[in-house]
Amino acid sequence: MLKFKGLISFSLFVLCFVHLASAQVKDTLLKPIDTIKTTPIRVVRIDSPKKTIDTTKAKYVNPGKVAARKAVLKSLIIPGWGQLYNNQLLNEKLNAKGEKTGHFWQKTYTLSKVGIIYAGFTLLTLSYIDNDKGYKTFLKEAQFRALNKGQTENKSLDRYDDTNVLNNLAIFKRNRQIVIFSYFAVYAVNVVDAYVAARLNYFNIDDSLSMKITPSLMSNPNSMYGFNATPALKVSLRF
What keywords were assigned to this record (predicted)? Predict the structure, then answer.
């Protein structure tokens, strides 16, 4: 009897152990695998597409700026060269329009500026030579009188006293400085004129551009004597 009870107890123990083992196996089979912890995440970099340059579209070049730059450079090297370059541009522009012999006065005006520039330099040079000669004459006389009281070296300057000699010396010296400044002024005007003329050669003026000035009336609510209209001029621009 005791053996029979022990056999039954052993059988129950084995059944419980088998049942626990099978439950453990099912639990491990049904449990999902955590792929986030086990598998590292790879970051994929998506490069933006490179911008392609449209080579078919040509870059705009302002011909007026190019011509003005060349005219200024030529005028800086040799005064008047920029004006000759502008005359060449004018000839090419007229030839392109089929006007080979037109605009005589416009060409003459362009070339005459070269003569004016060199005429100005010539007059300034003559003025500088004259003032420099006078300055040296009075300087020599002033130095002689400073060393020899009451005596005169140049007999043609006897009519001048010591004060007048010094005053004339200062005048001739100032005139020389003014002439030198005028040289730079004429040179600068030569450059500016070449630049402006080169830009105007490419300034578009055609029949579609017009200006009209007509008389008109303008309302004036603050007018005295009860008049609400004021005479005026109306300017109309058409492009």
Answer: Signal
Vertex 58 angle, CA 55 and 59, to 5°: 115
pTM over 0.70: no
Question: Which domain covers residue 103, as residue numbers?
Answer: 63-201
Backbone dihedral angles phi then psi of residue 217, each to the nearest 5 degrees: -120, 140
pLDDT of residue 175: 95
Residue 9 in any domain: the answer is no
Amino acid 159: pLDDT: 87
Per residue in 151-173, pLDDT tens? 888 888 888 888 999 999 999 99
Does 162 map to a domain?
A: yes
Number of structural domains the chain divides into:
1
Between residues 77 and 103, the one the model is more confident about = 77
